[in-house]
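User: Modeling request: complex.
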Amino acid sequence: MSDSNGNGLQSAIEVQHLTVTYRGRRGAPAVLDANLEVPRKEIVGIVGQSGSGKSTLGMAVAGLLDPRQCEVSGTMRLGGTSIDLGSTENSVWETLRGSRIGYVFQDAQAALNPLLTVEQLLVQPQRHRGVDLSAARSIAREMLEAVEIPDVERRLRQYPHELSGGMKQRAVIAAALIGKPGVLIADEPTTALDVTLQAQIIRLLKRLKDEFELSIIFISHDIDLVADIASHIVVMKDGVVIEAGSADSVVRKPSHPYTNELIRSIPRLEKVGFFQDTEFWSSRG
Amino acid sequence: MSTSRFSPSQRIRIGFFVLALLFIATGLVLLMGSYSYDDIGAGERLATPSSSHLFGVDSYGRDYLTRVSLGVVISLGVGVTVSLLSIAIGAPIGVYSAIRGGWLDMSIGRILEVLFAFPQILLALVLITILGSGIQTAMVVLVIIYIPIVVRYVRNVALVEAQQDYLLSAQMYGSPKFRQCFVHVLPNIQGSILVLASSIAAFAMIAEATLSYLGLGVRPPLPSLGILLTENQGFLSTEPRLIFFPAAVLVLLVISVNQIGDALVDKLDLKRNPVRA
Amino acid sequence: MAERSTPGISLRQLSVDYRIAQGIFSAGILRAVRGVSFDVSAAETLALVGESGSGKSTVLRAISGLAPIAGGEIRIDGSAHDPSLTRAIDAGIAMVFQNPNASLNQRLTVRRIISDPLHSSGAKQSQSSKVDHLLDMLKLDRDFLDRYPFQLSGGQKQRVAIARALISSPQVLLLDEPTSALDVANQAQVVQILQDLKRDAQLASIFVTHDLPLATHVADRVAVLYLGSIMEVGSQSELVENAAHPYTQALLRSIPSRKIKSAERDQNFRMSGEIPSPMDVKRGCVFRSRCPVATDVCAETAPELTQLSPTHSVACHAVSIRSNH
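Assistant: Request completed. Predicted assembly structure:
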């Protein structure tokens, strides 16, 4: 496998034959035989509507699915290690999460413990891993600067409810990256945000990708957003990967009719002008 | 949220299954049994269980299985009737109070507070001196005690439901309050009301047992599970089966009804929080 | 503002205030809508676009009587409308809500849902022909009438909600983010229906959304709101090609584009910071804290809407100064 520079590097993460079925639910599996590959320092976008299985896939790769509720099968290669997605113990996942895989949820509010200050949020996972207190504190400070939160000293002492929406999302990203993982999974991280804030967070993620040499799996229902941020796109429908390829080719010449429909049904700014240049499509037809 | 390994639907089925078994058993005993509940010549007094008297004989010489079976019917009858009546009266008041709001809602709220502050035993005694003791009085007492509980609970549930857009929409197109209550709100809070109903039935069965324990309520020789416990309490050390059988059956009844109610709560929860793919 | 010949609905300086508890003893005033004015004629659709805190939904709620009005006036077909005195249906106003699962009574059949407003206004005569006509207009099959909402898709549910709104023959149709809760396919369906409706019905419609491109597809004119005030109003082409207000320009730049990667766009103005709390803005232009061209006058007085063309107006001191030269 080679990255966008043509170098023959190992992928950061490779998923093979992932299948997830919810127990006690008759009908199709949530994810069926999905394969995914994320080259190093690249962003792969997973696009689909609700019910497509995109979030389930993200959670499976981070070991966040409850084995009592789901049956998972498939394998994952993370760097050099091979992991069985169905039978791996939670204790193993706990060491992976944080240090190898970071996770950003859509709802920043729900992901933040209201009883912890920002500093505690960032220091605790490090202490878990044996980092001493003062080192952990300074790393926390650096992290907040990296996610562009101004007035760091003050923010460290604050509780989640004192932060604005954008700050919360940045704090959640900081927490996901505090263990310096190589892979970040972001599940609809900007869906609940205003469009101007979304643009800032996207810029931030791109910067962080370069600064921390991350590979990112970016899950969203918005194909335009994904086309902007990702170099590769995977399209899912009803649990199945129906198309995958470079962002350019998927978006300009989709091979699957569903992808085509998906792209065409989004209302966009129509006229030719300073901001956008439209091509082959309009709102009708 | 429960941690039972049975799904809510399964628990509802188990609950109903147990109740059904009890029904069938007591039905068989009462319809086909050869003894009457008050026949004191049925057998030798305090005889232990045998093939002709499956639960033995009590201190008056009556067949105990028959008495327990009738006790089940009476207890369940009281529980269900009290539950149905208090909800039939209290629920509409609660919903209307929530939707009407304003002055009416506040007044009803104050009345409820007074009723809650009133000691229930005192109420029971007053009613019994007026109406005399007996099953009917016991049921009237219980219904009066439970109506304020129903009104308050239903009002709160209705208030929450009233925030939903479909009701705002109805207000906007001028739907009369009455229609809002009974066409829109009430059908949508059925689940919560069912849950309440099962809780009240369970409470009422135990309350009836308590009332008859105090000498109020069902009059001997009619057996309710409470009466059976009362009149045989002296035999706890000598003939424990006389206490054990009615107690076990009462526990079984209450647990089944509670399980059904509990599982309904979980079912409602699942409907509001569906698992997302 | 130029008066239109038969305005469907007009707002003048509409304000909505909420009292917010601050601390234990004091309360502050949150100005959710500040002096909003616009006209929408019959057969015209105006879109209200904004991010959170813009007040766009609050404007609809004020018109429909669900939010208290602190100041300003509303006129429908020329006569004054006080939502606290007159019911929405009597004033000829109907609304479509964002979430079709919450706005339809799940326990009623589609037929009953759509015809319920008629029961409420006492009209008992033949409703079924009206209901059938609406079904055709919204391209819903007749056999949907006996189904329940859970048997319908999101797009179908919203069309039922629209039918219910239209059955009372309103003059003003309010739509509060009607497609935000729908997936792309259903959204496209509803957008097409609304475009058809616009052609055929004589309604004045106000369409609220956070999605600017969507707004340009469904509306004749788009008003951009920020923290309760209108920043700019214009036709679709005027906004996309000639956006005058810095906030509108920033919004347009923030929209992900397949053609222009954001790195290129970012050469220009970066929108930094976040939307401040409305309680922090007491005087002057609401946008000044993030505006790249704000001057002293912007902190002192709020700019009025200045006309750049019969359909295009901007509230910005920088633009007014420029256009005076």
